[in-house]
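Hi team,

Filling in the usual template for the complex we talked about on Friday. All components are listed, including any nucleic acid strands or ligand strings, so the model treats them as one assembly.

SUBMITTER: L.P.
PURPOSE: interface mapping
COMPONENTS: four
RESIDUES: 268
SEQUENCES:
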Amino acid sequence: MFSKSCKYAIRAVLHIAAHTGGEKKIGAKEIAEALEVPKSFLAKLLQQLARHHLISSSKGAGGGFYLAPENQEVSLEDVIRCIDGEDLFTSCALGLPVCSSDKPCPLHCHTLAFRQSIEQMRSIPALAREIKEN
Amino acid sequence: MFSKSCKYAIRAVLHIAAHTGGEKKIGAKEIAEALEVPKSFLAKLLQQLARHHLISSSKGAGGGFYLAPENQEVSLEDVIRCIDGEDLFTSCALGLPVCSSDKPCPLHCHTLAFRQSIEQMRSIPALAREIKEN
DNA sequence: AGATAAAAGGATATCTTTGTCTTATTTTTA
DNA sequence: TAAAAATAAGACAAAGATATCCTTTTATCT
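RESULT (copied from the run log):
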């Protein structure tokens, strides 16, 4: 479904959304410990997300990762595309070169439905709020 | 979503269902050429499927792979479980140790729906017939 | 019986993903 | 200004997935 990298990244972004705000930031180390994932590995994923402007970061003492105003509309789809590429959203689940509604593979409509259900999800901050409410 | 192995296996099984029947069998070489996938690699996948009784095989000249009567109810789910394991059907899409309807991850209901839509698909032979009708 | 055709199985090679370690760069703080 | 804290970046290691090759076993056909 998703690569391990992508799972880590999604969880990390949700954690950032839930645990930062205003001036508050959170370090890669702290995130890694909370999620119980390898720190250096996660750090690279966070760098990648930051380079693509899905999250924000600041260096130096007191620095860390956070969601700036321009990150508030970032979606799960954005994170997935950034880490795993667009395959999940574009290519056939069976790897067929041609697979469309005209000439669908047996899984075509199932994967399309899944795809769309992910595309329609709310923003990362909104998802983080939903989790907190439970 | 699926590993390359699993994609090959699914396509191969559908090809077998579509191109064999009665006494007719099909060799690994012929399947590999039709699907344009590496022959030796596919052969191992077919062996694995045969060991688990999802497909049948016979050795020697004129041998090959086919669907015996006891393979007629084999499903896509069976093939996926055989090659990729049961992760797709059991574990959380984000890799969380606990993720249930009580304490769902943000993707829980979406993956559940996808899972179920795969579980409800018809047998491999039935899917192969549907393809032929198009 | 011998030749041939095909699956079964094992060993090995290559590539990708995942994980670790070290150094550089930037920022804050004392 | 020096030390400390944090991200950024690069090299490398380990594990897993993918791919290839070779030998063995089994069945068929002449």
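MY TAKE: Residues 4-19 of chain B form the longest helix (16 residues). The first strand of chain B starts at residue 56 and ends at 58.

Thanks, L.
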